[in-house]
Design brief:
By secondary structure, the chain is α/β, with parallel strands linked by helices. The protein is about 45% helix and about 10% strand. It has ten helices and eight strands. The protein is globular. Pfam families: PEP_mutase.
Amino acid sequence: MSQVEKAEAFAKLHRKGDPLILFNIWDAGSAKVVTEAGAKALATGSWSVAAANGFSDGEAIPLSLLAVITRLISVTSHLPVSVDFEGGYAVEPDAVAANVEKIMDHGAIGINFEDQVVGGRGVHPIETQAARIRAIREMAERREMPLFINARTDLFLQESDTAHHQILLDEAYRRADAFAEAGASGFFAPGLVDAELIEAVCDRSSLPVNIMVRPTTPDNVTMARLGVSRISYGPAPYRTVMGMLKSEAEGLYQQT
């Protein structure tokens, strides 16, 4: 498939009640394994990609290296590849769009794009984030590329007390509406774990909703019933693999 065809196929995989499952990867090797396991699409996790290359999360990994990793994943697997692009490696809309274009040029058909202030505090104002999304969409349209922009809000991740998530719903709805109007393709609400709140967001959002698996999220069957369209695993696969590697290594060295 061409890059455009992959992007179109990727968008069609987002079905409410029949969610796309993304077991997040971090390099060409993990892409190959997950592809062979039967995945329908691939998605990187920023934390995992950074850690696998010796960097911390938060756009510490150079954009040039992220682009190379994207290319290696794209040529290793025939599947559509979405890249966790954090805050776009810039603040100004035109600069963000230019950076996204670089990732597209290396094979990405979709991105996660978050509203948190990378390296700062809180989240960008709705108007600011909408302008950034709009610039990305306009760039993609000029390229005749149906880029899947998974617009992420960090409202719930930044509130560690899940008992307070209920009061964040109205703000989340406003962001989902504004991001959709600006050209987003999906709405990502990592950190949201309560079943009733997940269902409320799915019912309210005009965009397909993405939820990230955490220890307290409902199981995948339940999330499908709640109306989720995309389920991702974030850094969990990387942590599992590295935990196994460490355990095997410790067992070996403790014998000597």
